Amino acid sequence: MTRGRFVALEGGEGAGKSTQARLLCDALAARGLEVVLTREPGGTPLAEQIRSMLLSEGDGPNLRTEALLFAAARADHVARLIEPSLASGKWVVCDRFVDSSRAYQGGGGGLPDEDILTLHRIGSAGLLPDVTLLIEVDPDVAAARTAVRDAAGSDRIGGRDAAYHARVAEAFDRFVENEPDRFARIDGNGSPEQTHASIMSVIEGLEAGSS
Ligand code: TYD
Fold first, then answer.
1. pLDDT value at residue 211
2. Residue 85: pLDDT above 80?
3. What does the DSSP 8-state code read for residue 2?
4. Has residue 108 been placed in a domain?
5. Which is the closest atom of ligand 1 to the Cα of 102?
6. Ligand 1 atom 16, closest CA
7. In a domain, 10, yes or no
8. Mean pLDDT, range 82-90, rounded to an integer
9. Number of domains in the chain
């Protein structure tokens, strides 16, 4: 059995990740591949419970507890859904993964990158996607999109101030510069169709590599 491929989508608020994850899954399924679409935090019943602890309004956990909870949710998600799916030959498309913890709790919150990677090693044996698509949008495009999406209010982390989100964006940018083999930059400023086409050109390379 050939192991499936693991694709993660990353980016800041309003980047269009969820739409692109769906379009990517549809395209892969149309090619006859078995695909699992999932998201973080979440993806399993336990991880979805942790998600509501993390994102509901209120004081919420402190920074270290927050990082531990994201890592715990991820550990359950990897053990119960991601690893078994990959082992049975399915492709997994995940809306956010460990690089979100590195960018938000690390870049945004200030925890050392090494600590986040240590938690990931403990929780999830350090599993990394085959490719991580960083969808990049200009701040004004992102702001216009989140204004529509979050008209009724944003979640506890999405609602943090602009300086926090600027540090998140800088962190993502740094990861791509430092780890170019793991990432592909995707311009997300255009229409969903244009962004999808850019993603498919990266995925074609991955498919070719898997044969
Ligand atoms: P979600 O509703 O999925 O937001 P988005 O549509 O922006 O992806 O909420 C996820 C929020 O959790 C988002 O603000 C990013 C944050 N997050 C972290 O801070 N660390 C993490 O490890 C993950 C996976 C998400």
1. 46
2. yes
3. P
4. yes
5. 22
6. 157
7. yes
8. 98
9. 1
